[in-house]
Design brief:
The chain is 36% helix and 16% strand. The protein is globular and about 50 Å long. A seven-stranded parallel sheet has the order 3-2-1-4-5-6-7, sandwiched between helices.
Length: 233
């Protein structure tokens, strides 16, 4: 539940990778954080509460959001990657990614953002991907991440006048457990021109800025953290 006087953020995927890094960074900045994840919590902090929940389960997710109470920020970082080229694409993989990336984001925002609008302020950050523009072997994943951009821009247009910002952070290959997932063993990550993978803490730093008062004029944007991968070189 929300603590009086503390800014409160709801972060999905808070038990690993980018979501964990964002939750930790927010706690370091004095936020109260509620984490939603299928995996057990990895943080122990007096301002952190966690609910184990399958975000593809609509009723369970709605109950978890109600239990969290009012929040000033929503970060949807939970994600999964399945790969495949034409001829091998899986309906199950597509459905899983769509439910977790798009349906869960929609469900969370639908429940949380109207309350933000009533309060006259709020922040939403969706974790997308640099491949949202398309990449061989990633068509189904890219489609779900492109959908997040469309959602963010639409929601931003609906809520800008109510003091709410909605943005997408689109990282290139990032140092997370997702890279070691056997489901993507056939496609190794490509290092960006920076010469290394993106670090979760770098994504978290940007997320914290976008959730701050200083970012009030930034909304409806897809911001790439790509180490130069999006440049023509």
């Amino acid at each position: 539940m929300a603590v009086q006087g503390k800014k409160h953020a709801l972060v999905t995927g808070s038990s690993s990778g980018i979501g964990l890094a964002i939750a930790q960074a927010l706690l370091d900045q004095g936020w109260q954080v509620t984490g939603l994840d299928l995996a057990p919590p990895q943080l122990a902090h007096p301002a952190f509460a966690s609910t184990t929940v399958d975000l593809c389960d609509a009723p369970a997710t709605q109950r978890a959001v109600r239990a969290a109470g009012e929040v000033q920020a929503l970060v949807h970082a939970a994600g999964v990657l399945r790969v495949g080229r034409l001829g091998t694409l899986s309906d199950d993989d597509s459905a899983l990614m769509w439910r977790l990336h798009v349906d869960a984001a929609t469900r969370l925002a639908n429940q949380i953002v109207p309350t933000m609008a009533q309060a006259g302020s709020g922040r939403v950050v969706l974790i997308g991907s640099r491949v949202s523009g398309g990449m061989p072997g990633r068509s189904q994943y890219a489609a779900t991440k492109a959908a997040l951009v469309a959602l963010a821009r639409s929601w931003a247009a609906e809520t800008a006048a109510r003091g709410i910002t909605v943005n997408v952070i689109a990282p290139a290959a990032t140092e997370t457990a997702m890279l070691a997932d056997p489901a993507r063993a056939s496609t190794a990550p490509k290092l960006p021109p920076l010469g290394r993978l993106i670090r979760p803490a770098e994504i978290a730093a940007l997320a914290c800025f976008l959730l701050s008062a200083d970012a009030a004029a930034i909304t409806g944007q897809e911001i790439q953290v790509c180490g130069g991968a999006s440049l023509a070189m």
